[in-house]
Design a protein that fits this description.
alpha+beta, OB fold (Dihydrolipoamide Acetyltransferase, E2P), Dihydrolipoamide Transferase, Chloramphenicol Acetyltransferase, 3 domains, four-stranded antiparallel β-sheet, 30% helix
Length: 411
């Protein structure tokens, strides 16, 4: 009996996926629940396993893009597992035993040091990099997919020990030392989607950015004063992201257009705040959402952010967590950015950019003092958000952070 393997639905907005790494080969006998192939969508990576045991027949090669519902392989469930040769000579048995031992060592996928995962092995092969030259960061030294993506091929630098002197009357350019290699890599489905959507945002919205600066003294003092008590009570640290999320929620209540979006000739206003938090992953930037952030405490927001960040970096975000969102926050400050203009996360109408905290001299009551300052930026779609609303929104966030007790009292 033939069991068809088709691409399952993975989200309302996803119509096609890319075949990643076939863990099993064409003609292999596979057991039920064994991993067959890795599939890449524009938002995440997922795996398909064997529903029944049998012989695998692969119909779609690695790297091909197919639509949802496409048949990519089949399993002949009538086939039986290959029988072992018990009558083999002793010498062959010893070789087979060693081979099986090596296979068992590798089968740890391979958690043994220096062994790449299937997807990592494919990437290293494409780069022509010896796995032995890569330090694995996975369990027991296993080489992960991220290790393979960041690995670089090393090559000896050639030098000319006996350079030929040029004629005195001729000026000869100095030879270029070192290798000048160029490598080409195919864009991942996620990176292609990011590139496409960013261009669409630039071309289809009237995006502007307004800036302000925030004195972080008060919020840093509050955080320092209560961080130990907060962690002891809620079992999680108090970070700046939850405070900015809370401040944005309060500002969104006052300026609903910033929390809205354009749909054709209509404007959609939301009476809830689903806040997208930009997270950098090895594959690119993803923006999972905090649902109904307006109903949450600082501790609740911190726990959700921590959970989403871990799932994003492990590639385990669900489609529900990735879709929707009414407003986004991105923090370039964790990478040292002093100031930037964040780009909209369509179809949302605005995004807040946080930046690095730097001590700078500022004037306070006629006196020059040193304060920890942060530049903040609000990019917005001018088609729905007026300049007055955008500036007022950012000023409101500034007021909340500079006097954090206001947001807790909602005044």
């Amino acid at each position: 009996m033939e069991l068809e393997i088709k691409i399952p639905p993975v989200g309302e907005s996803i119509t096609e996926v890319t075949i990643g790494n076939w863990v099993k080969k064409d003609g292999d006998f596979v057991k039920q629940e064994e991993l067959l192939v890795e599939i890449e969508s524009d938002k995440t990576t997922f795996e398909l396993t064997a529903e029944q045991s049998g012989t695998l027949k692969i119909l779609v090669k690695e790297g091909e893009t197919v639509n949802i519902g496409t048949k990519i392989a089949s399993i002949d469930t009538a086939a039986s597992a290959p029988a072992s040769n018990e009558a083999a000579p002793k010498t062959e048995a010893k070789v087979e035993a060693k081979t099986e031992a090596a296979m068992e060592s590798n089968k740890a996928d391979s958690y043994a040091k220096g062994f790449p995962s299937p997807s990592a092995a494919k990437i290293l092969a494409e780069k022509d990099i010896d796995p032995a030259s890569v330090n694995g960061t996975g369990k027991d030294g296993r080489i992960t997919k991220n290790d393979a993506q960041t690995a670089e091929k090393t090559a000896p630098i050639s030098s000319n020990s006996t350079p030929t002197p040029s004629a005195p009357e001729v000026s000869t350019p100095k030879p270029v030392l070192g290798e000048r290699n160029v490598r080409r890599e195919k864009m991942t489905t996620l990176r292609k989607t990011i590139a496409k959507r960013l261009v669409e945002v630039k071309n289809q919205t009237a995006m502007l950015t307004t800036f302000n600066e925030i004195d972080m003294s008060a919020v840093m003092e509050m955080r320092k004063k209560y961080k130990d008590t907060f962690k002891e009570k809620h079992n999680i640290g108090l970070g700046f992201m939850s405070l900015f999320t809370k401040a944005c929620v309060e500002a969104l209540k006052e300026f609903p257009a910033v929390n809205g979006q354009i749909d054709g000739t209509d404007i959609i206003y939301h009476d809830y705040c689903d806040i997208g938090i930009a997270v950098s992953t090895p594959k690119g930037l993803v923006v999972p959402n905090i649902r109904n952030a307006e109903t949450m405490s600082l501790a609740d927001i911190e726990k959700v952010i921590s959970n989403l960040a871990v799932k994003a970096r492990d590639g385990k975000l669900s489609m529900e967590e990735m879709t929707g969102g009414t407003f986004s926050i991105t923090n370039g400050g964790v990478f040292g950015s002093l100031m930037s203009t964040p780009i909209l996360n369509a179809p949302q109408s605005a995004i807040l950019g946080m930046h690095n905290i730097v001590e700078r001299p500022i004037a306070v009551n006629g006196q020059v003092v040193i304060r920890p300052m942060m530049y903040v930026a609000l990019s917005y779609d001018h088609r729905i958000v007026d300049g007055k609303e955008s500036v007022s929104f950012l000023v409101r966030v500034k007021q909340m952070i500079e006097d954090p007790y206001r947001m807790l009292l909602e005044v």
